[in-house]
Structures are given as structure tokens and as C-alpha cells.
Amino acid sequence: MERKGLIYEGKSKVVYASSDPQKVIVHFKDDATAGDGAKRGTIKGKGEINCIFTKLMFRMLEKKGIPTHFLDQIGPDEMLCWKVKIIPIEVIVRNWVAGSLAKRYGKEEGGKLRSTLLEHNLKDDSLHDPMVSEYHIQAFGWASKKEYDAISRMALQVNRILKPYFDRRGIMLVDFKLEFGKKGSQILLADEITPDGCRLWDKATKKKLDKDRFRRDLGGVEEAYQEVLARVQS
Ligand code: UDP
After folding, report:
1. Exposure of 142 by Cβ count < 10 A (0-12 exposed, 13-18 middle, 19+ buried)?
2. Nearest residue (CA) to ligand 1, atom 7
3. Is 194:43 a contact under the CB 8 Å cutoff?
4. 208 DSSP assignment
């Protein structure tokens, strides 16, 4: 599939048009950012790892009945996807307390939650991705009630599949962020599922195996990405 013009360049991915107007080429970069782009760097090999990781996750989810935009891996760090219109809402699923949740409510990282938490953030770095309710989403027209229900239901279903999947590999799926897109009226899981947008902790040692190593200057970033990929490939 031939690369055509650039459609969109994000912080960690570039989207190109392809020779088929219904499909796009998504290129994963080694670039990493944190704090809504305030901190920048590169993680060597991340583009390739994230591409393979996303392929494994999306293929598995498809088999379990979650429709995704993923079509094929077409290069070491490139995938062919359905062209979708991204719904500007980040859906965050949380199984344990971490990150902004810990800060916001004064809770210890790693603390238990009595039930799975679902949060919705507006996808807008300039506003620092503010949390929004289903009422904000409808009132501002970011998604309809039906779409809100569909993406929320799909996110919880993804968690029901991924949490035990990682658990079997000795990893706690602490939290993760999903994005959805529309192909006509059909809603597809879009974007990526990678250690950039998931918190993955080793079950035994609680070692962080995700982008928090970069965000928090913990070192061993490349090694953590390699380890987590090796675990999902096993
Ligand atoms: N996340 C993301 N992109 C964002 C914000 C969050 O991928 O713009 C992911 C993050 O990697 C984590 C989860 O969503 O797995 C929850 O993040 P949180 O709200 O705790 O924000 P953070 O502490 O990363 O600022």
C-alpha cells in the first residue's frame, strides 16, 4: 500500500493517506511526550514495539468481538487502518488507583478500587484534557447519548478481556486510555493500545513497565517496553 499525503501528525504517530481513500497508514514514532507535550524525548525502538503491541491487542480484541480500525501491519512500525473520524473523547478505564486519580482524590497509588472506574476526558492538550461527564459530552455535541453508551460499554468490555489477559502474563493492568472513531455510523476502537497509554505493573514486584518510566525519569524505559512486549508475545 502506497503512502500518499500526510493527514495528521500527532505526538507519537503520523497518519498518511493511502491509495485507498477509505484506508490510512498509521506510522508509530519513537518520540515520547508527557505532561500534554511539555516534556519531550525519544524511546529507542518504541515505534516498532508499539506497532506490534497494538496489532496483537487489536487482533485479539477483534477475535473477541470488538470492532477495531486495524487492518494489517504493513511495515515494522506501520499499520493499515480504516479511516475513521475520531470521537474527541478519551475513555479511561481504571482497575487500581494511579496517576491523576491518586492526585485528584488524595489516594495512594496502587490502592484498590471497589469497582472498575470509567472516566471520560476531552481530547484537547491545550485544555489539558479536562474530565467531562456524559452531560458535557451531549451538551457540547462531542458525541450523542447512543455513542457515549456504546464507547463506554466497549471500553468496559475491552477491560474484561485485557485484565485477565495481562494477569495471566504476570502483569497488573492498572489503567488505560482508549479512543474510538466512526466509519460512517459504525463505531470502531481506534488509535492504539500500547505501554504509552496503559499502566502495566509487574504483579510480583509492582515494577512499572510503561510510559511512567519516561514520565517520572525512572530509567530503563527501552528495557521495560521490550519486556512487556516479550510477555505478551509469550
Ligand atoms: N493516558 C493517555 N493519554 C493521556 C492521558 C492519559 O494515554 O492524554 C493514559 C495513561 O497512560 C494512563 C491512563 O490513561 O494509563 C490514566 O492516566 P491519568 O489520568 O492517570 O493521567 P496521567 O497521570 O498520565 O497524567
Report:
1. middle
2. 197
3. no
4. B
What dotted CATH number matches 3-82? 3.30.200.20
Q: Are 179 and 196 in contact (CB under 8 A)?
A: no
The enclosing H or E element of 73 equals strand 70-75
pLDDT in tens, 50-78: 999 999 999 999 999 999 999 999 999 99
Question: Among 92, 159, 213, which residue has the most ligand 1 atoms within 8 Å of its CB, making it the best to mutate?
Answer: 92
Atom of ligand 1 nearest to the CA of 177: 14
User: The whole model's pTM is what?
Assistant: 0.97
Q: Which CATH class is domain 85-220?
A: alpha beta
Partners of 73 in beta bridges: 79
pLDDT digits (tens, 9 = 90+) for 157-179: 999 999 999 999 999 999 999 99
> Domain residue spans in the chain?
3-82, 85-220
Rounded Cα–Cα distance for residues 187 and 151 (Å): 8
Asked if residue 162 lies in contact with residue 68, where contact means CB atoms within 8 angstroms, the answer is: no
Query: Would you state the cell numbers that stand for residue 63, as one nine-digit string?
Result: 477475535
Q: Which residue has the cell 455535541?
A: 141
With CA atoms as reference, report the closest residue to 213 among 205, 201, 203.
201
Q: Are 170 and 234 in contact (CB under 8 A)?
A: no
- Check if 92 has its Cβ closer than 6 Å to any atom of ligand 1: yes
